[in-house]
Amino acid sequence: MTADEHATPGADDTGGAGRVFRVLVVPGVNPDRWLRVWRERLADVPLELVVVEPPDAEPALRAGDADVAILRLPVDRDALSAIPLYTEETVVVAARDHVFSVAEEVAPGDLADETVVRPDDDLVGWTDAPGEPFAGGPVATTADAVDLVAAGIGVVLLPLSVARLHHRRGLVSRPVTDAPGSVVALTWRTDTHDDLTEEFIGIVRGRTAASSRGRGTPEPAGRSPKGGRKTTKAQGSSGGKRAGKTGGGGASGKRGGGSSSGRPQRGGTNRGRRQGR
């Protein structure tokens, strides 16, 4: 696991003033823009980024190892809330001397005569994909599957960002038309939703600081809630109080914070189709 270098060393994660907000992500997900916005709005709450392998993501979140997670669906909706963010394009990875290397894209029917290596941590979930299953026994991880493909044994279907992570000389990747995509979602434990979680949800969904439903950005010292005149004794005790919104309801929904290309805005590296509103 990799901790975000911007997290404050020695910060207490038990809550209160020393609270550390942990965001769990899986390989291929790039949350940089959202992390920058968090640090601008909540500089007093350190944020720690934790990277785990896909099979470990949901168990880690449910065990309380992170406050929220950005991972690939499906997840257990009885225990977790989720907001789909974008759908990532599926590509086929093959050896460079494979016939697919001369094509711009691959149709599902083109896979029919291919040996398709499906690792145990399959990230696409295309259970009825054309092609012949790899007959050499179980393949534990995506990395193992890519090793087989690099050796000239079959092809593997991956989300685009994951294919990029595993790219090496001797491999090519091509989009597969009409293939199901991999849905990336923001998830959190339904029973532990709080103001900071709502703040992060708002950032991912593109809310401004003024429209945040979470803890929000404190008013500058000495100003009224509307940002007008400085408070004075003549205004009385109520004149200096700001009317804030409490964090609250468990946000959920279909609309995500990705761009129209399916990428996290700026800083995102993933291609795909955005979930419809």
Automatic annotation (TrEMBL):
GO cellular component, one term: protein-DNA complex
Pfam families linked: LysR_substrate
Domain of life: Bacteria
Region (Disordered): 204-277
Keyword terms, alphabetized: DNA-binding, Transcription, Transcription regulation
Low complexity bias (residue ranges): 205-217
Keyword set includes Ribosomal protein: no
Residues in LysR substrate-binding domain copies: 33-207
Keyword DNA-binding attached: yes
GO molecular function, a single term: DNA binding
Compositional bias ranges of the Gly residues kind: 237-260
Record-given protein name: LysR substrate-binding domain-containing protein
